[in-house]
Amino acid sequence: MVDWVSLSVPFAYLGILVGSLATFSSLYRKRKTAKSLSLEPWFPTHLQRDIYLSLLHLEPEPGKDKPPTVPDGVLKAALLQRATEDIKRILEVRNAKQALNNLLQRGSVGDDLWQRFQRAEKEVEVELRDVVDEANALQANWGQTIFQSANEMHHNATLRAKLSEIQAKGKRDRERWDQEKAAIQTSFMKELNEDEQESVKPASVLGADKIGSDEDAVLVEGGGPAASGASTGSKGAGKKRKGKK
User: Fold this and answer.
1) Is-contact 140 76, C-beta < 8 A?
2) With 0-12 CB in 10 A as exposed, 13-18 as middle and 19+ as buried, what is 121?
3) Which residues of the chain are modeled with pLDDT < 50?
4) Contact at 8 Å (CB) between 83 and 131?
5) pLDDT of residue 85
6) Those residues with Cβ within 8 angstroms of residue 36's Cβ, 6 or more apart along the chain or in another chain
7) Residue 227 pLDDT
8) What is the CB neighbour count within 10 angstroms for residue 131?
9) What DSSP line would sit under 108-170, residue for residue?
10) What is the pLDDT of residue 35?
11) Contact at 8 Å (CB) between 136 and 142?
């Protein structure tokens, strides 16, 4: 006779174990999803997308049944701006993925940052498909070339920004050089004036010495005290010699 009680115990244990694992997995996924949604987004608000959707879904004005008609050219321009912003985000994701992956392997960043990046990557993929669908809806087969045009626009905008930065830097360097040049000129003129003042002082001293020497020469030539004393002495000596004779 089969003992069903003893056989039901392992099955009951397996059932409880599988149920516990399923409950834990469900709760863990819900918690992980809620945590990922609470994380700060990688990119800021997509303003170009919001503008395009606002133009596409305009509400009717008060007192009118139909909303105003937006020209196709305006919608195409708005969608092209949206695609240009998507190009920027694609380049940012590509440039950051390898570096972020290396940092994650080294343990330099946490899982929260990696989850934010993965969510941003998925959002970019969904955005690209949406832009292609919108482009094909506005114009047949435009979705195949819209990102090429957007890439050219992004490249031109980058070049203009770099050119403006170079011009601004050149202007700042020019102003700084003018200031340094003026300071150097002021310092040079100050040193030149000091040298001129120092050269005037020895000339005045030499002039005074020359005047003193000229006066001494005049006194000697004109028979000054020294000359008169010498002549008197010579006369006295002559008289003494005559007396002796």
Assistant:
1) no
2) middle
3) 206, 210, 215, 217-222, 224-245
4) yes
5) 94
6) 115, 119
7) 44
8) 22
9) SS-HHHHHHHHHHHHHHHHHHHHHHHHHHHHSTTGGGTHHHHHHHHHHHHHHHHHHHHHHHHH
10) 63
11) yes
